[in-house]
Amino acid sequence: MNSNRNCFDIKPMLDSLRASIGDSEFGYRMQALFAHVLLGLGGTITEVNQQGHPDIKSVKDGRTELFQVKSITHSYPGCVLTVSPDDIAGIRPSGPDEAGYFAVLDCAVPVSWVVSGYSAMRRHETRSVSIETIRASADSELSIESTGVFAELVMRHEDNLHLLTFRVLRNRALRGERL
């Protein structure tokens, strides 16, 4: 599959899903779907939280990774989101065997994940920050890999995307069952 092309093709699918389930539920589902992205990148999911921080904990190569996940429609230039103190606290590494990330699903065309590390994001705590600013400090390799896996997952499940609820996605991720 052509992941670059998929990033354009999945936009109407995600827009349709958001319109049918609402922004809040869409955000929860994308959070749980991101856990499946992490599975696809070789991680083991240990937590997926609908409430609280971090949203996702995974282990990869013996290292615990803490993720705070957001999604934005990016329906206008200069789109911003607010980074809360709880968001930053939730991804703060407690030692050298942990890493924290802030992952944003940017639903502009082309759809992409923007994944930025704790050190870069803590500068934006309690501020409104543009997606372009987050993208400038993002881990480009992790962002590109996440986007590719995500686009392929959405394309593969186009016909049943609406059935993949937060609970279904969460439970399967915690069991290590890839979509």
Strand and helix layout:
Blueprint lengths: L2 H7 L1 H11 L1 H18 L3 E5 L7 E5 L2 E10 L7 E3 L2 H6 L7 E9 L5 E6 H4 L6 E3 H6 L3 H17 L9 H9 L5
Parallel strand pairs: 3-5
Antiparallel strand pairs: 1-2, 2-3, 4-7, 5-6
Helix pairs in contact: 1-7, 2-3, 3-7, 3-8
Task: Write out the strand line-up for the largest beta sheet, numbering strands in chain order.
Answer: 1-2-3-5-6
Terminal CA distance reads 16 Å
Q: Which regions have little confidence, pLDDT < 50, spanning 5+ residues?
A: none
H and E string: HHHEEEEHEEHEHHH
Q: Rg from C-alpha positions?
A: 15 Å
Explain this structure to me?
The protein is globular. It has helices at residues 3-9, 11-21, 23-40, 85-90, 118-121, 131-136, 140-156, 166-174; strands at 44-48, 56-60, 63-72, 80-82, 98-106, 112-117, 128-130. It has 179 residues and is an alpha+beta fold. Strands 1-2-3-5-6 form a five-stranded mixed sheet. Strands 4-7 form a two-stranded antiparallel sheet. It has one domain: Trna Endonuclease, Chain: A, domain 1, CATH 3.40.1350.
